Amino acid sequence: MAPKLPPQHSLQHSSTAVAGGHSQHGHAAQPKGIMRWLLTTNHKEIGSLYLIFSLVMFFVGGMFALVVRAELFQPGLQLVEPEFFNQMTTMHGLIMVFAAVMPAFTGLANWMIPLQIGAPDMALPRLNNFSFWLLPVAFTLLLSTLFMPGGGPNFGWTFYAPLSTTYAPPSTTFFILALHIAGISSILGAINIIATILNMRAPGMRMMDMPLFVWTWLITAFLLIAVMPVLAGVITMMLMDINFGTSFFDAAGGGDPVLFQHLFWFFGHPEVYIMILPAFGIVSAIIPTFARKPLFGYASMVYATAAIALLSFLVWAHHMFIVGLPLTAELFFMYSTMLIAVPTGVKVFNWVTTLFRGSISFESPMLFALAFVVLFTIGGFSGLMLAIAPADFQYHDTYFVVAHFHYVLVPGAIFAIMAGVYYWLPKWTGHYPNERLAQCHFWCSIIGVNLTFFPMHFAGLAGMPRRIPDYALQFADFNLLSSIGAFFFGASQLIFVLVVVMCVRGGKKAPAKAWEGAEDLEWSVPSPAPLHTFETPPVFNRTHHHD
Amino acid sequence: MSGGYYVPATSRWPILASLALGAMMVGTGIKLVYDTGTPLMLIGVISVMTVMGLWFRDVIRESMSGLYDAQMDRSFRWGMGWFIFSEVMFFAAFFGALFYVRTFAIPWLGGEGAKGVSALLWPEFVAHWPLFNPPDSAVLGPERVFSPWQLPLVNTLILVTSSITLTVAHEALKLGERKTCKHWLTGTVLLGCCFIVIQGVEYYEAYHHYGITLEAGIFGATFFILTGFHGVHVIVGTIILASMLARIWKGHFANDQHFGFEASCWYWHFVDVVWVGLFIFVYVF
Question: Is B179 in the same domain as B55?
Fold first, then answer.
């Protein structure tokens, strides 16, 4: 199980790409200290800011989850008021989705996309800085609602009207405005990423030469630009209903609460793919590296990603099977949802086939990537169960749903982020992460995640409703296990912080090509990557790449 | 075309813009929830506009000092194109709400179809559009609605004409006939102002003689959110075109290199197209 040693000759394929020299001209004296981070236009620094912000928010959102799990440790109400419990479930979801997972992927995109396509920076560097600094503003405002009179948002991260309008606490207006700021950040970030990918590729690099992380982010950015404005629209309608007496979501005035759900999920379903497509890209980089084989079915991976993204616009009402949709709508959304299993299956089979007869080694990035493939697939299958409309009548709003989406988001999205961090840390810091501690983090995480979320399937199938601070006695054992698992998982993440901090401060030196099987362009620049790379575009030679 | 991509060193505008936007949002929130906080909101709005102006000034200076190459030009084109796409999706949410309410929600409230259970809540409710009598009698619907063939038609003609005059101005700029460009661009800005004034008159009429208010049920809600956000976009577009006019007076823009001007045209045409959609689906049908 010893980590594979880095290759001695790190630039065997140096002819495929030439790293830009680290030229000094044009870079006037950099501001020092805090000002450097406030004013930066550098994609690597902004990427680091995103990742650090995301990590902090991961722990904030995690603390909220632990409040929930502590309350659910035993039946009965013991620790918190139901009102506060609702605020915790809501804030946990909002923070994890909008402040932890999404910024983490954007941070990885910032760091890696210019390096992977041979660009000097993002296409619009100042806009990039703006996109990041909107986030602390947005989430400071969002978190401050917890201290406002009447408490913070308490209606679930899906904030269905009229719970979020007629019956909402006064702080909801601030919640809406915070989400508007976060939305502006996402849209501008996505525009920047698309412009970078379409316009900044090294001469000679065609679209079908791009690494899959770049492809999946291109498609993710398209989804973001398509649906974040719809979210902005729906929360604006909420704002109007709350403050200006409109009737968008009020049937008394001719509106419809179900309209809220349609608009929300038209945003919300593509949103869940926004949180998983870049993960597919990361895993598609790591598995070939540690299997020492090119990715199987590169083109089909691209088409499958595009197919998933297009289908994501046609499935939103599978979240609404029990609100009273016409039968034709139930059938349409059931079948369209099941169709997504086809391109997703293509991806899973491609990963498995990439592993087939590879010379596999099990360094920490690979462990997380392999766990991703297995556990994300479990989450995908429970999603298929939920897609069956008549069955969903039973599963809806139970812990089965909670188990399902946590399997795709925790060992799915978050494991992929951690895999990506371990994979690219040598490039960022010039040091390998401590492999022993990283593997310890992996095994603790995988035990914690399954202990937390696997019992939730059974609790849900037996009928335990979600978002309730108390439960019937027959669910006690499942909840006990989940709560133990959650605290174990949460504590395990401190190891992750330790590994990252140690890696930044020192460790075994990494060469430019830190992993033996790694082929993409980022491994042609030195480790750590200098602040400015590819100021002269590298010449991309496609013979060493796909096909 | 190699090696010249301009990466600005550092900039204070992004962080200041974030803080300004934050102040504007917090001020707005305090204003809405606690009915105070207007100063903070105004400081925020003014700061946002100031920072945007200074940020654009930097970009213009960099552009005019020749720091931008063809690749940078393409970045701006992709950026502006996708920004307009995001705006399209923003309006799509409101159009979608209008179509959903008219096609599904109101007929169901009137008892149509197997899912018309909400008919049990208001048995006397009769589905119709425009919705003069919302289900609950506590909500007053509009008394009457605008004829599309009066002010809305005038406004449609104004905006469509303004797209044509803008195109003439753009063609003139490309041919280097800057005087012609100034004339037609001035005309476009004036047409934009006319539109805003007429829309203001219509809003006055709506509140004082038609009973169309924000509180007037779903008709008032969809009417004002669609025309309101469109109106805001016309105001912003007019300001943008006016700044382009000022830049032409100052001698900015080359015949073959003037993306700032072109982007303003894209934006204006987009606003025009949205209006045509509004005219058809809000006023005519």
Answer: no
Dihedral angle of Cα B91, B97, B98, B101, to the nearest 10 degrees: 180
**Banded pLDDT at B195 (limits 50, 70, 90):** very high
Nearest chain B alpha carbon to A23: B3
For residues A175 and A157, give the distance between their C-alpha atoms in angstroms, rounded to a whole number: 11
DSSP type of residue A245: -
Q: What is the CATH number of the domain that holds B207?
A: 1.20.120.80
> Does the model's pTM come out above 0.90?
yes
Domains of chain A plus CATH, in order, are 49-544 (1.20.210.10)
Quick check: B217 and A126 CB within 8 A? no
Q: Is the dihedral of CA A228, A229, A230, A231 positive or negative?
A: positive
The string of DSSP codes covering B177-221 is: -HHHHHHHHHHHHHHHHHHHHHHHHHHHHIIIII---TTSHHHHH
Count how many pairs of residues, chain A against chain B, have C-beta atoms within 8 Å: 231
| Confidence tier at B163 by pLDDT (50, 70, 90) | very high
What percent of chain B is predicted at pLDDT more than 90?
91
Nearest to B135 among A171, A237, A251 (CB): A251
Distance, CA of B220 to CA of B205 (rounded, Å): 13
Interface test with A, best of B12, B13, B21, B109 (most A CBs within 10 A): B21
Residue of A nearest to B91 (CA): A233
% of chain B residues with pLDDT over 70: 97
* pLDDT range class, residue B4, cuts 50, 70, 90: confident
With a cut of 50, which residues of chain A have pLDDT below it?
1-27, 547
A135: nearest Cα among A77, A180, A202: A180
Contact B7 A120 (CB under 8 A): yes
Bin A205: left if φ > 0, else alpha if -120 < ψ < 50, else beta.
beta
Query: Domain span at residue B24?
Result: 1-68
